[in-house]
Amino acid sequence: MRALVPRRLRARLSPLRRRVVRLLRRVKLRMATRASSARQYQFVFIVTYARSGSTLLAGILNSLPGYRICGENYNALYRLYQADTAIAKACDRYSGDGYLVPQNAWYGVPRIRPHRFRAELVDNFVSNEVISATLR
């Protein structure tokens, strides 16, 4: 491997590698000290910008036993956020008794419970077969 990577490139990557190793040590130390509270989380979402080292972070986390980091999701979380916002806005705007008439375009909106919709949206996203299949 050493022969395949030019010396100048190795010299530039070496400090980054040391930083990653130090970061992993700190994470492992924190996880060891907070092991009891860390067990309460089943899923953690990491959101990053482009060209920020997210691929490197995903590779490092995937190397840990018991972890599976999935990449791009084509803005799926943003679309779910938009759905939640639209339901909340509709419930605020169309909550009167006049919207319980079947002839109304917004019929049934007052019966929607935004907090339940949000909770079920999260549950469905986390337990969805498509997402679960990628986590295996």
What does this entry show, briefly?
This protein has 136 residues and is mainly α.
Kindly describe this structure:
This protein has 136 residues and is mostly helical. The model has no long low-confidence stretch (mean pLDDT 77). The longest helix is centred in the N-terminal third of the chain and has 27 residues, at 7-33. The chain folds into three domains: 1-39; 42-72, no CATH class; 76-135, no CATH class. The chain starts with 6 loop residues before the first helix and ends with a helix. The protein is elongated, with a radius of gyration of 23 Å. It has six helices and no strands.
Secondary structure blueprint with pairings:
Layout: H1 7-33, H2 35-38, H3 54-62, H4 76-93, H5 114-127, H6 129-135
Helix pairs in contact: 4-5
The helix/strand class is mainly alpha
Tell me about the largest β-sheet.
Answer: none
- Strand percentage lies at under 5%
Identify the overall geometry: elongated
Helix content: 55-70%
* Span of the ends, CA to CA: 30 Å
The helix count comes to 6
Low-pLDDT regions: none
What is the radius of gyration?
Answer: 23 Å
- Oligomeric state of shown chains: single chain
Q: Domain count, please report it.
A: 3
Beta strands, count: 0
Q: Give the topology string: H per helix, E per strand.
A: HHHHHH
Average of per-residue pLDDT values: 77
